[in-house]
Specification:
- The protein is an alpha/beta fold.
- It has a domain at 2-136 and 215-264: 3-Layer(aba) Sandwich (Rossmann fold), CATH 3.40.50.
- Helix content is 37%, strand content 21%.
- It has helices at residues 47-54, 82-96, 108-119, 143-162, 176-186, 191-202, 233-242, 254-264; strands spanning 2-6, 13-21, 24-31, 35-40, 61-67, 101-106, 124-130, 221-224, 246-248.
- Strands 1-2-3-5-4-6-7-8-9 form a nine-stranded mixed β-sheet, sandwiched between helices.
- Helix 2 crosses helix 3 and helix 4 (143-162) packs antiparallel against helix 6.
- The two termini are 26 Å apart.
- The relative contact order is 0.14.
Length: 268
């Protein structure tokens, strides 16, 4: 089911997409025309986080932005898993009748994109991994990541018990305009979904075990390293070493980097 809606982050009209997988009603939002580009937001966000930062990609592509299961309007309070998130992307593509697409994500969304590529490689035209955070179960969560994940999960548990306003302290260190937007977005979240998401992220689950498992991912891949301890550069570097057709781009203009990368991919 698809219908037009007015997105809150922009005056541009977007399309709301409703679809089902594994017994759950899920939502995605799309705008633009061109080759399909599916981008997944990170933890404590929803599709609006992609729209605000990367919405200009819709100038040349069909930009599809899911609310990942357990985020935004895709309410889910059960046990999350990388394979489940990967299958949600497959279900979205099936609903849209897309045999293949460029798949990408930011932070935790890049983990879901990587899980999709491992589980459904024939459906991934190319990968865009922005600020990857998951270095494999062998490497585990790094100390700064463990602190951040535990803090998020503690806030998620408080939100479930006390109300969604318990998330506000997570954003207090952000610059005022960004903080206000993040708080406004978080106030619309479902507390049970937030707790499920933060529980999953704090569990230490990774979308793969060892770097060697990435060697079979032959699709063209853009890896953009993070700039903080929660998204350490060494994880992006490990991806590039392990994946045969991966390249990195430290350009802070993510839209320009992604556009240039997709132009370089044959048949996209």
């Amino acid at each position: 089911m698809t219908k037009p809606s007015q997105a809150t982050e922009t005056i541009e009209t977007t399309e709301t997409i409703e679809y089902d997988n594994a017994g759950t009603r899920l939502f995605a939002f799309a705008r633009g025309r061109g080759g399909p580009l599916i981008l997944l937001h990170g933890g404590m966000g929803d599709h609006r986080a992609i729209g605000v930062r990367l919405g200009a990609l819709a100038d040349h592509h069909r930009l599809v932005m899911p609310d990942v299961r357990g985020a935004g309007r895709s309410h889910f309070a059960g046990a999350l898993a990388w394979d489940l998130l990967a299958d949600d992307v497959r279900a979205l593509m099936d609903h849209l009748r897309l045999p293949r697409a460029v798949i990408g994500g930011f932070s935790a969304g890049s983990g879901a994109a990587l899980a999709f590529a491992r589980r459904h490689p024939e459906r991934a035209e190319a990968l865009v991994l922005l600020w990857p955070a998951f270095g494999g179960a062998t490497r585990g969560l790094l100390p700064a990541q463990r602190v951040a994940m535990d803090r998020m999960h503690a806030a998620g548990k408080r939100a479930l018990a006390e109300g969604i306003e318990a998330l506000d302290p997570l954003f207090e260190s952000l610059p005022t305009p960004i903080r206000d937007a993040a708080v406004a977005m978080a106030r619309s979240f479902d507390p049970a979904s937030v707790e499920a998401t933060t529980r999953f992220l704090a569990s230490g689950a990774h979308p793969f075990t060892h770097d060697d498992e990435l060697a079979g991912l032959a699709m063209p891949t853009l890896v953009v390293p993070g700039i903080d301890p929660e998204h350490p550069v060494e994880i992006a570097e490990a991806y590039v070493r392990a994946m045969p057709n991966a390249r990195t781009d430290p350009n802070p203009d993510l839209v320009a980097s992604i556009r240039a990368f997709i132009r370089s991919v044959p048949a996209v």
